[in-house]
Amino acid sequence: MTAISRAAQFAQRTAHLRASTIREMLKVTQQPDVISFGGGLPAPELFPTEAIAQATQRVMERLGSAALQYSVTEGIPEMRIWVAERLTRRCGGIFSAEAVQIVNGSQQGLDLVGKIFLDPGDHVVLEDPSYLGAIQAFDAYQTRYLTVETDEDGLVPESLEEVLERADPFPKFLYLVPNFQNPTGRTLSGRRRETVVRICEHFGLPIVEDDPYGELRFEGTDLPPLLSYRSTAPIIYSGTGSKIMAPGMRIAWLLVQDEAIREKIVLAKQGADLHSGTFAQYVFHEYVSDGDAFDAHVRRIAQTYAHRRGVMAEALAEFMPEGVRFTRPAGGMFLWVTVPNVDTAELLKISAASKVVFVPGVNFYSGRDVHDGMRLNFSNATEKNIRLGVERLAHAIRLYQR
Ligand SMILES: Cc1ncc(COP(=O)(O)O)c(C=O)c1O
Q: Hey, what CATH class is 49-290 in?
């Protein structure tokens, strides 16, 4: 059989699968002298390697083969209880461990949500711009998007209302990242949170709240997750250990209070991978079960990122040509730079030659063609490289403008 006739047998949905620019770019960044603001990698020097080694040792001594056996699809009881308690603390409500589904990275959670809700041609409501990985996950289900405007306070409720009033067919859910959004770093303001929940309630639209960065706040006061608000519209909350512990563990969770949705998710997860790794779940739980040490660890990450965000913002103010604007996020791992009249996808070619890379903003938009934005990651570079990288980037912009 030739390669061409084999390709002809692929499912139609594969035509919607796009190569991720980010993954492609990560290949370029393997060169040691390239400074990357492109990926979304946490700082590896903050991974608690020693404590994880000790936790692994304790799990093996205490549980032995039980930690290596198949386990239930929903996740090990210890992990589900830990997630329910942590969210109860953050939200002020009371969540039961029953509502928790452990998943293999929140990326899997997004895929499972797509799998249970989306038929070809269905619509999903997204912030514009929105997280590229979510778009990729939903694309596999041949989805179309309705986009909602955003500003410095996150999603604009009036725009959401307008979109929902006009929507035909009616969308299946709203996907949003309310805290320190990927890609813009912006946060949905406290005032808008309840409004968004009420609008979705009014229209009967489920909400998928993706919150990988909520615990990485540098300044200001914590805002309640949308999950905190009582709502007749189902809220599917997605959290992850990737940014507060280590992404290689692939431990993440969904909290879903709606029983019917949860049942479908369990069935979809069973078909996908039976369950998340038993061993990883036990080690993760063993590590986080010393609550004070874990909280101190999360604070240390936030402090380091706060410092790096500050260094990047200062360098941008110092080196960038006039007219360049940037966000100054109060948490998370990304900031967003707008370079008026510059196509940042073209700029990337020049900047890569100057050995600094970023993600062009156009990749995150599904509603409009916006070419003058770029996402910069500040968690994964040293202070020295952040300054040097921003200086190189400013130089690349000047070359482009010539
Ligand atoms: C908004 C958002 N959702 C989900 C993910 C995926 O995280 P995980 O490692 O839990 O799959 C990321 C990772 O960058 C993200 O930024």
A: alpha beta
